[in-house]
Amino acid sequence: MKQPRAGKKYFFFDIDGTLTDDATHRIVPSARETLKQLRDNGHFTAIATGRAHYKAVAFTDSIDIHNLVCAGGGCLVVNDRIVDSVPLETDKAKTMLRHADEAGIGWILMLDDSDSVYMKDLKFLEQAGRRTELTTYHLDPDLDYEKMDAIYKIYLAVDEEDDRRYLWLKDLGSLRMGKGYRVFQYDKKKDGILRMMKYLGGDIRDVVVFGDADNDMVMFDPAWFSIAMGNGTEALKAKADYVTAANVDDGIMKACRHFGWI
Fold first, then answer.
1. Distance, CA of 157 to CA of 101 (rounded, Å)
2. What is the structure's pLDDT at 53?
3. Beta strands in the chain (DSSP E)
C-alpha cells in the first residue's frame, strides 16, 4: 500500500462533506481541532474548492484558514492575499457567447471577485429567472464581451434539452444550476494545486488531499497522497490511497493521527 513521505505536508481539504457536516453545514469539531494541530506542527493547510473566493472566505475566515485554491482552481490565496487568478479561456468564452447570441440564449457574466453579474439585456432573467443565491445584477445595454480581457464565469439560460441540442456547450467546463441554466467556470482543482505548490516552492510528493465526492476525483492524483472520507462515493474511495472514517466520525482527525501528522 502506498505510504506518504515523512516530513512537512501540504494539505488541501474539500469543504462540503469533508470538513463540514452535511446536516448542519458547519465544520466538524474534530476537523477544526485537527487543522489547528496541523498548523502548530508546521504543516501547510489550505482549502481546495469550486467556490468563488468571495464566497469561500466567509467559511475559511471562521476556521482560521488563510490559504485557498478556490474558484475551481482558478484563484490562489496565500496568507489571505490573492496571488494568482485565472479567467476562462478568452477565445473559447467569447466564441460561446457568440453561439448563445446566435441561438437567442440569454447570458450573464461574472467579471470580478464579487456577487455582481453583468448583462446587456434581460434575456437571461426572462428565460431562467433570478439565481437562488445572493446576486447583484448590472444591466448595461452597451456591454460588449468582445472588448473584454477577462471573463471569470458565464451563466447561460439553457435547459436540459438544450444540453443535447447544442454541442458547443461542451467547449468549456460547466455544471448545471437547477433546470434553468448552466454556469461555465474554471474547473481544474488539480492544476490549481500544482500552481500553488510551484508558488510555495514545495515538492508535489508532499501534497495530501482530502475529499468525499466524485467532483474531487480531479485532485486525486497519483503524484501525491489522496484520502477519501468514509462517507465518500465508492468511485472516489476506489481511487484513494487511503480511506478514513466518515467526516462526522472524526475521519480527518483519525487519518492525521494514523499517519503521525498530529
1. 11
2. 93
3. 10-13, 44-48, 68-70, 75-78, 81-85, 107-110, 116-119, 136-139, 153-156, 174-177, 181-185, 207-211, 225-228, 242-243
**Chain Cα centroid distance, residue 207:** 17
Model confidence pTM above 0.85: yes
For residue 31, give the nearest of 48, 12, 18 by alpha carbon: 18
d(CA 105, CA 103): 5
Cα 211 to chain centroid, rounded = 12
Task: Note whether 46 and 82 are within 8 A (CB).
Answer: no
Identify the DSSP state of 4: P
Amino acid (one-letter) located at 204? I
Give tens-digit pLDDT for 130-170.
998 889 999 999 999 999 999 999 999 999 999 999 999 99
pLDDT in tens, 235-246: 999 999 999 999
Taking a C-beta distance cutoff of 8 angstroms, is the pair 119, 107 a contact? yes
Amino acid at site 5: R
